[in-house]
Amino acid sequence: MVPPSLGRSSLDRLKGNILLMDSRRQILCLGLEGKRGAAQAERVMLFRLLVANGMELRTRMDRQLSDSGLTTQQAMLLQVLQGQPEEPTLKQLATTLAMSHQNLKQIASALERKGFLEIVPDERDGRVRRLRLTQQHHQFWKRRNQDDHAEVAQWTAALSLAEVRVLVRGLDKLHQALMRSRSEP
User: Fold this and answer.
1) DSSP letters along 10-28, please?
2) What one-character DSSP code corresponds to residue 112?
3) Fewer CB within 10 Å of terminal CB in the chain, N or C?
4) Rounded CA gap, 148 and 63, in Å?
5) Which of 99, 116, 97 is nearest to 108 (CA)?
6) What is the pLDDT of residue 68?
7) Which neighbouring-strand residues pair with 133?
8) pTM of this prediction?
């Protein structure tokens, strides 16, 4: 079942809510005036809202992690690394994260200095470097996860569980399509 709030145009909801700040409305709707309900305008609005929400959530998580010395980007790298079936090379992880080898190496080096991972030579080819999580990494997240997850739940409390499930399915579908099209010419 689609929640009732999804039935109206995003632009209609933004323009019809007098509680929203004028500057926020102006930024999100910029160039879309007179196109309310148009499919392309809705997709542009979706993109803008995803970016705006992503920026806000990253800022909040940076604050949440600040006492640990980690950034959201570093934490995400650690989580992706933890989900790998084997210790990836720098090149493999850079490809997975869609970032340059150089940028990944900088972030990984900072995490190595902080004790969260090790950059180790590959057993078969000493020129290749692999990323290995440390015990400190596992202990750190075991202590933090419960509080961090509770904080994320608070940030997303404006959404019902049904709305969360719809968004998760839709955003996962979008992410899969984006990842598939990344390799297309």
Assistant:
1) HHHHHHH-TTS-HHHHHHH
2) H
3) C
4) 11
5) 116
6) 93
7) 117
8) 0.78
